[in-house]
Each structure stands twice: as C-alpha cells, then as structure tokens.
Amino acid sequence: DARVTQTPRDKVTEMGQEVTMRCQPILGHNTVFWYRQTMKQGLELLAYFRNRAPLDDSGMPKDRFSAEMPDATLATLKIQPSEPRDSAVYFCASGAGQGQETQYFGPGTRLLVL
Amino acid sequence: GQSLEQPSEVTAVEGAIVQINCTYQTSGFYGLSWYQQHDGGAPTFLSYNALDGLEETGRFSSFLSRSDSYGYLLLQELQMKDSASYFCAVKTSYDKVIFGPGTSLSVIP
Questions:
Q1: pLDDT reported for residue A57
Q2: Which residue positions in chain B have pLDDT lower than 70?
Q3: What sign for the dihedral angle of Cα B39, B44, B50, B51?
C-alpha cells in the first residue's frame, strides 16, 4: 500500500531553534508539494517540486524557510530560526505528474513553537 | 488575485442529501478537485472535474460550470462518517493547486 510518509509526526520546539521536516513521496511520483495548514489561513501551498527541481516557492517566507529534494525519495522543509507563528500542521503531498490531478497527502507534521 | 469561496459550515441529517458549493476566481483554470479531511487526518482526494457537468462516484457527485466559475460536491445517503471538512481546490497550472477555505460538514442523527 503506497503512501507518503512524513517525520516527525509531532515536534515541540522553542523559538529560535531549527526545525527540519522530512517527507518520502510515493515511489515513482515526480511532483512533491509542501503545504501548511492553520485554522486561520487554511491550506497554504509553500513550495513544490517537479523531478526534484523547485518550481514555485512563492508561498514560503524566504528568510527563514527552505525546501530541498536531495534525491527522489526525500524532500525536506527547514525552518531556521523558528517562531511561534510557524506553529501549524505541515503536509507533504506527492503526485504522479504528467498533469495528473490527484495529490496524495502524508499524515502531516504537527509543529508547536513555544 | 486568486480566491475560492465555500460555506464555512453545513449541518445535515443522516440519510439526507447535502450540497457544498464552491465559487472561484483564479488566473488559470485546469479543473476543480474536491478533498475530504477528517479531524486530525490528512486531506484525501475525492473527485476532479475538468469539463462542465456532473461526475458521479458512488454516493458522491461533483459538478462544474466553467462559465459560472462554480462547482459543487453532492453527498447522498449521508452517513455519520461523512462528518469532516471538505475542500474545493482549483488546478491553476500543470501541477499547482490552490485550496479553498474548507467547509465543515456535521452529520447529525
């Protein structure tokens, strides 16, 4: 049963600390998306990749957030330094690309910055 | 700008039919998707409409009118497990999707 995996599932950290979230997309999927979900803003697209190349990161605060795909099986989202307003659930999703409409979401990382 | 609108909350009775509407204004449009999300869970894909008309998948149907920038999700024979949030999402480019604010559906006995 192919699925997107994310680690960690929960993270509590203090303001100013670095946070790294990891995502393993479904094998064979060539598009990867990072979303942030809060009650206030809903589901926001932060960044996405096609064939490991970043295509759009306009939704991401550039001064503290960075997203990379070191290889086809791993996507990372880093926050440095973290702030309380970054507290949210971060979802990774992958898709088969080629214009396919379905995105498969991972279980999310629930981040709390104190 | 880009905007999607949905009702924030809908309540319906078990066994009944409910319709969740979505209107959108986006700079590009390839199609309209619907996702379901239970509390504490991840969004899961329900349906996709690229062309005008009604698509049916079991108890769920989705409709699109491109000329009206409007779509809806129709849930029939409601069950308690259908209580969840439902998001419409517009595919604005080859890969990119923008999500609506979500509609919280409560199914009551």
A1: 87
A2: none
A3: negative
Question: Which of A41 and A86 is assigned the larger pLDDT?
Answer: A86
- Which of the two residues, A87 and A41, has the higher pLDDT score? A87
Which chain B residues have a beta carbon less than 8 Å from that of A108? Answer: 42
**Chain A positions with Cβ closer than 8 Å to B:** 31, 33, 35, 42-43, 45, 48, 50, 55-56, 91, 93, 95, 97, 99, 101-108
CB A62 within 8 A of CB A71: no
Q: Among the residues of chain B, which ranges form H helices? A: none
Q: Under a CB-based contact definition with an 8 Å cutoff, are residues A60 and A46 in contact?
A: yes
Position A99 pLDDT exceeds 70: no
CA distance A44 to A67: 15
Contact between B63 and B74 under an 8 Å Cβ cutoff? The reply is: yes
Q: Are B7 and B103 in contact (CB under 8 A)?
A: yes
Per-residue pLDDT at A14: 97
Contact B97 A103 (CB under 8 A): yes
